[in-house]
Amino acid sequence: MVVLKPEKERQLLRKKLQQMRDADGQQLDREFRAAHDAVFAVTDCLQCANCCKTSSPIIEQEDIDRIGAALGISRSEVVRQYLVMDEDGDFVFPVQPCPMLLDDNRCKIYDHRPEACRDYPHTRRKGMKDLLELTKKNLEVCPAVAEILTQIKIP
Question: Coil, strand, or helix at residue 14?
Fold first, then answer.
């Protein structure tokens, strides 16, 4: 089973994230991309699935269509059976673990999963400097984020 790093190590990584605010954005993107690729080349998310067990992604309209197609139900049935609107006006799953998570940590709708799930933990995007706060939150959920941050070299 994959586990989060101890609090002391995560605290050091949170400080590193703070320092990244002063880094060159393009260099930071390159560093994140390289570290992300290296970490996920050897990471089996099925050993953890903590993101699916503890977080609810924002579900976009296109996601609702894909989920409906995967489950063989209408858009309105997806909303009725699986979603709620949060305080920001976004659709989310109202329960954790995710209702699509199976007992073996696989996703019932993997090929049709929401875009936020496809992109998680959002460490290979362009503009990572703007995502440092999100990365800080994901550090508390995803062990791979800690490994990515450990690999990143900042001046």
Answer: helix
Q: What does residue 51 show for φ and ψ, rounded to 5 degrees?
A: -60, -45
State in Å, rounded, how far the first CA of the chain is from the last one.
34
φ, ψ at 115 (rounded to 5°):
-60, -40
Check: CB of residue 114 under 8 Å from CB of residue 56. Answer: no
23 and 131 Cβ atoms separated by less than 8 Å: no
Q: What share of the chain is helix, strand, coil (3-state, %, to 5)?
A: 55, 5, 40
Locus of tokens 């995502």: 131
Instruction: From first to last of the 155 residues of the chain, give the pLDDT tens digit.
Output: 567 889 999 999 999 999 999 999 999 999 999 999 999 999 999 999 999 999 999 999 999 999 999 999 999 999 999 999 999 999 999 999 999 999 999 999 999 999 999 999 999 999 999 999 999 999 999 999 999 999 998 76
Structure tokens at 136: 């800080």
CA distance 144 to 24: 23
Label residues 96-125 b or e (16+ Cβ within 10 Å = b).
ebbebbeeebebebeebbbebbeebbbbbe
HSE, side-chain direction, 13 A CA sphere, residue 30: 7
Asked whether the whole model's pTM tops 0.85, one would answer yes
